[in-house]
Amino acid sequence: MSAKHRTISGVILLLGCCVLPSFAQTDAGLERARLDELRTKGYEALYNLEYDRARIIFKEMARLFPDHPAGPQSLAATVWLEELNRARHLQASLYSTDALQDRSERVDRRTVDQFRHLVREAKSLSEARLRRDPNDLEALYFLGAADGLQAVFTAGVEQRYRAALGDSARSVERHKEVIKRDPNFHDAELTIGLYSYVVGSLPLPVKLVASIAGVRGSKKRGLEMLERVADKGDWAKDIARTLLIDIYKREKRWSDAV
Question: Please, are residues 167 and 30 in contact by the beta-carbon 8 Å criterion?
Fold first, then answer.
């Protein structure tokens, strides 16, 4: 894999870490509580590598909330993470640009088709909500999250880096729009902050080339955004803290990591 592809894949892998659903503005009352309960249980199973259990929970979420993109998106995330684990591509250092390596085996076509179907469904549900209400920021957040998820799968599983970079850029732009409309929607800052930190961490020659293509970032600004998510975020709070541990270790800020 070339240095350019390692850089792209590292950025895209980071984007994938923040595509887990956020429910900052979902339905109130019992439905909200049930949706959040299923989401929490499902991702707990997913983090524990209990993929079959996670699927059962997410399928139930999709059945109970057929108009919400959280169900199919969570199922797509399960397909992606299971494939990464199977291929031993998910490494401990999430910020590493060497996180994805060349694959020697071919990807099961059914896995790719299943993932694409679920992402299309998540996007379709998000777009349907936006057609009903263009000001539905949660729907816009999910649409951007679906782009990010598609990016990490396209790069990490299918190894199509150019297509993946386009998806990741769309994810960041959609989440920038979320923040523009509601600066307090801090979960959306996770994607933007990670992107900014990674681009800002590139070696100067690579950074200069990237800037010509319009790709710019700042380690300081990206880190500040991640810290804000960890402090003020909703469902992305714990994800931000996990990523900050890794970044603080890289920056040799041991006491902050502890």
Answer: no
Per the CB < 8 A criterion, the answer to whether 206 and 18 are in contact is: no
Return the pLDDT at 152.
75
Better-scored residue on pLDDT, 228 or 97:
228
Say if residue 87 is exposed, middle or buried (CB neighbours under 10 Å; 0-12, 13-18, 19+): middle
Residue 44 in tokens: 């707990």
Taking residue 220's Cβ as centre, other Cβ atoms within 10 Å add up to 10
Give the rounded distance of the alpha carbon of 94 from its chain centre.
12
Distances (CA, A) of 226 to 105, 133, 198: 35, 29, 12
Q: How many CB atoms lie within 10 A of CB 32?
A: 13
What is the mean pLDDT of the segment spanning 33-50? 87
Mean pLDDT along residues 84-105? 51
Separation of alpha carbons 212 and 84, rounded Å:
32
Side chain identity at 209, as an amino acid letter? V
| Contact in structure between 151 and 12 (CB atoms under 8 Å) | yes
Lowest mean pLDDT among 151-155, 181-185, 203-207: 203-207
